[in-house]
Amino acid sequence: MGNLKKRCFPQIDEIFYFNTLDNGLKVFLIPKKGYQENLAMMTVKYGAVDTEFTLNSDDKKVYPAGLAHFLEHQFFEREDKEDLSKQLTRLNADSNAFTTHQETSYYFSASGQFSQSLNILQKAFKSTHLTELSIKKEKGIIKQEIDMYQDDPDYKLFLGVLGNLYPDTPLAQDIAGDRDSLAEICKEDLEDNFTYFYHPSNRSLLVIGDFDVKQVYKDIVATERQFPIERSARIERSELSLNPIQEKGSLQMEVALPKLALGFRLRGLSSQSLLKEKLVIRLLFQLLFGWTSSNFQTWYEEGRVDDSFDIDIEVSTYCQFVIVSMDTKEPIAMASKIKHSLKHFTKSQDFTKERFELLKKELFGEFLKSLDSLDSLAVEFMNHLNGKETYFHYPDILSDLSFESVIEMGHYFNRASDISEFTIFPK
């Protein structure tokens, strides 16, 4: 298999093959015997936050918010007027794409004609086919998408607290941008950013399923070799500015109950293992506020919270935050209770080594379940590519976590996190 390398994880009976091709494309192959479908995902390290950067050391670039998301939509346009999704549909492949703050991913799943679909996906990254007419049409579609999200209370809640935590930064912007930034997007901006960020060296290709590893790898290499190797741009991304937070914010919408989001922004969190930090934070918040905790059970029985209670954790090289959100009749009281519980976490009756070990087993069970879903595994695998660390290292990292590490994280939160509240009140 040439330079294709192999990593084995006997504890979970998983392996993956990987290599970086001559043009810089990183390839990962995960064989799964007995699966009826195969999945391919191409992920570009380019997301909504990449609006300001320096090109080739001295060329400062600034672009409108929402450009990465717009490019994702326009990427499906093809020269022959049959867009990418229709080409894949003709081969009975289901395709989709999504943009996050830091990445853009394109993927498809298919039970037959997989190699042909993969060939189409790879070739699509060699050029764009943008026209003024298609861009104008897309602006109308995305404008409707933006307007739709403006009427979504849960989305407005999340964006509101994120804007409080990271004011005047790309994180405070909708991934799709707004009407003003949408109007600024032009053909030249889209073509330039495609050239800067869609280079093979800034992309990773993942294939999962029951396939011939040698043949699929051979096909991938052959397709990439059809195109000349072009020089990549040197991109220096702007660091996230930790501006002073806005401690509180609110708005009114058509909701039955108030919605509360309590955000915690971390400062100075640094580790060689982002997965480890995320797991420690998750264990801390699950111990204190998980569905099996006495806190949650008491609040639920008292009617203070319901099944909408959620904990969202983001730990990346760019940002680290936790958002606790809920529907509640008592947003002010619940914000106070959560902050008080975290401040005095060591006194909680739930904060025991026994529950810690039990939660570790639950997390391991969730991990094993994720391995059986092509979509879940693809997203998690791509999300956790950090140096030599991958999603398959999850069990070892989880097993090595100590109760003391969670205690340390609790003290760190109380010492170094910035806290903000955002509430949506009924009109």
From TrEMBL:
Domain of life: Bacteria
Protein name per its UniProtKB record: Peptidase
InterPro entries: Metalloenz_LuxS/M16, MPP/UQCRC_Complex, Pept_M16_N, Peptidase_M16_C
Pfam families the record matches: Peptidase_M16, Peptidase_M16_C
Residue ranges occupied by any Peptidase M16 C-terminal domain in the UniProt entry: 187-363
SUPFAM superfamilies referenced in this protein's UniProt entry, alphabetically: LuxS/MPP-like metallohydrolase (SSF63411)
A single GO molecular function term of this UniProt record: metal ion binding
Domain Peptidase M16 N-terminal: 64-178
Phylogenetic lineage: Bacteria, Bacillati, Bacillota, Bacilli, Lactobacillales
